[in-house]
Amino acid sequence: MNALQQFEMEELEGVELTEETKDRFKINDLDQLNWAFRKYNALLQEKKKKEQLAAAEIERITMWINEEKKPIEDSLQFFEFLIKEYHQEQLDADPKAKTISTPYGKSKSRAVKEAPKQVNKDFVLDYVKSNNLTDFIKEEVKWAELKKTLKIADVNGKKIVLNEDGQVVPGVEVAEANTSFKVEV
Q1: What is the pTM of this model?
Q2: What does the DSSP assignment read for 2-62?
Q3: Running DSSP on this structure, what letter comes out for residue 136?
Q4: Tens-place pLDDT, residues 57-86
Q5: What are phi and psi of 69, to 5 degrees?
């Protein structure tokens, strides 16, 4: 934050934005608009400064917790390995021993059958197309491209959407126009 922005922030100190003060302030000319932009810019810089400080602290704390968790996670993996190894031995001896329960926890096993796995979508799509397996192809409209070709017309006071040939496009309506505002500094 530069000295000018610091001055703007100091000028705002002590100003409490209640409903009453919000009603009192109104921009009536270009000078007042300029004043509002200076305050707005100074507040944005102050917010950015606080966000940067928070981000640095969050990163520092994240690094700390990751270091603290590493030996614990290593131990968890070790005990998980021991439990799985024991359960596998029990399952080998008795295929019905799918769950082993103790007062402090359970080990559950679940058999997963082999199944096809898609590794390259483009190859699979080419295969499906070349073998006329069209039931397995999902169709979607390229809306952004289609929208560029459509026109809005007013018919008997009602707005409708037409294609390039002047035909009504079913399933498409006119979204009302509105004005949005964005403040930039």
Answers
A1: 0.48
A2: -HHHHHHHHHHTT----HHHHHH----SHHHHHHHHHHHHHHHHHHHHHHHHHHHHHHHHH
A3: G
A4: 999 999 999 999 999 999 999 999 999 999
A5: -75, -25
